[in-house]
Amino acid sequence: MKALRTHAIGGPETLTLDEVEVPAPGKGEVLVDVKACAINFPDTLIIRDLYQFKPERPFAPGGEIAGVVEAVGEGVENFKPGDRVMAGIGNGGLAEKVVAPAGRMFPVPDGVPFEKAASLLMTYGTTIHGLKDRGHIKAGDTVLVLGAAGGVGLSAVELAKAFGARVVAAVSSEEKGEVARKAGADEVVIYPKGEMDKDASKELANAFKAACGPEGANIVYDIVGGQYSEPALRSIAWEGRFLVVGFPAGIAKMPLNLTLLKSCDICGVFWGAFTAREPQKFVAQVKELFQLMQDGKIDPLISETFPLARGGEAIAKLESRQAVGKLVVTMD
Question: What percent of the chain has pLDDT over 90?
């Protein structure tokens, strides 16, 4: 079988398409014939040794897969060959076949395309945990989403609307703003791509405040970080929740006096650790996501698909922040 692997620290251009042996499932494991692997921001970090986890090389990136069960190991009773499944596996997904723990797998309902199933778990999983468990979202809230046209950002727009909130989408271009509007955003703010000075930062904060309204944003969903975080914090409501989700633009240095003035919270959203610490709640949220999909309230946007041999291109496109919606590698 083929796998797109990293042999040395570097960018997506260093990945090589290797011929490797088909792995055998051990006790409690499942062998999956991979049909689709979604690309996520951790994939850009893990091959550069910048992620929290550093697998032993060589390994394939790709932490989110969907496919068909080919074989099961000893003790696996809840899955059988032929079952349609999806899984969050950390890494290894950019391969034609993958072995993963049965406990990390979920059945994929009939009618759900593999590309969309592979795009559901990490993005929408992160967001439903963030909005509900960390942001305590309720109907009538105003939610400001930074980076609202990417995979995680669009999941935040859709889920916030599904939970009855008003959504302000912050994006870097009018094209991306239109994508966010189609996903349900009520307002769009376009922020500058270049370096902002103090005046530009203040101008962006005022734009956020105007879009969020006089009470401010009850929840800020920050997927971007860097120079955009402080202007967003300045637009937060009294007792608002600022959710730290990611920082492709850099790790922000926040003036903590603002948290006192707004009596607000800055909350981390570490979805991976949450799934390990609270597996029952995680399973319940995945079921809720499929129900929301069935009800037509969420629908992952797949903007582009790539064959396995070009998986590095998908990672490069995400790394350069050019992606809209989800990028997916397919094995057909």
Answer: 90
